[in-house]
User: Fold this.
Amino acid sequence: MADEFALQRADSPARTLMVTGNRAGLIERGRKDLLNLTSTALYDKGEAFFSADGVPQDYTQAAFWFRKSADQGNAYAQERLGLMYSVGWGVPENDVESANWYRQAAEQGLARAQYRLGDYYLYGIGVPKDPVGAIGWELRAAEQGYKSAQRWLGIVYLKGIGVPSDPQEAYFWSYIAYELHTAENGSVLANSAARKRDKAASFLTDEELTQTQERAKHWLASHRINAGD
Assistant:
């Protein structure tokens, strides 16, 4: 679980915004003009420095522009700051500050931030440990189709990490994660979800297994989602 979380803390953004045109072109303009841009354009500016898109990678500059965007309420910039504070890229490593930015993005409905904030609450990273609150945030992300959260729920419910073990819920979310990963050819992650699904199934009666399968199939039929994780 810890290894998977470490990898997820450094993953790439769910989308790349190019609304304002070439990022390198934006950087050639004066700072005063850029400060008057929209939150999306400011996010693009930060992403240019973060991803070395047309300019040398510079996490300090990235953090500066992400903050300008985040202060205008841009959830993607807020999530980026949460990541940067969690690992100390361009800013001092600070789990409390990281949790604060993740929370702001999560409250706006950004699934990736909800997923990360849930992990923080489970382990007490930058926030008081709160397994029930953790499940709540992970469920919000999972319901949006965020597969990392679905796999997370499968693990937590199967092993009873911070919450009582619940093989039916473990099977339900692992089943969904497997189906979504398989549809996108995510073979390694699909296999991981399948192992958790099959392990959970071993604790269920035939009736429980059938009921949970039908519930998962209904969820998949009613959620046509591509969350990009």
